[in-house]
Amino acid sequence: MTLRILTAIALFIDAGVHLHLAPGYQAGNPAGIGQGNLFLFEAAAAVLAGLFVLLRGSRLAYAVAFVVALSAFAAVVLYRYVDIPAFGPFPAMYEPVWFFEKTLSAVAEGAGAVLAAVGFARAGRRTSGRRITGSPG
Fold first, then answer.
1. Nearest to 65 by CA among 21, 28, 115
2. Which of 13, 16, 30, 86 has fewest C-beta within 10 Å?
């Protein structure tokens, strides 16, 4: 249960930072999808993944949490160091600085990905053990 709580907390921190920052980023680029809206989508995905892990703790829940956390971590690091131009409705999101909220979300996302990976592996062992124990013979 501790692993489920820690994974969810990491995702909730990620969501909170994105919710806090979204309005300012949307105002900076109101056309297209906008970075603020992408932040809101990320926050929603992180909250849902965190709740899924808390409520179920299954391999699927941890897999979803891993994908959400790792994709957010990869995006923040990528857009910190690589100037990717706008494409389609997606804005250019290059931001070559670290500040408190950005660092906090990156640490939470990285920790969430690691915790979710551990949870995924542990949930697989529990499932395998149940099959062996519950099998006839």
1. 115
2. 30
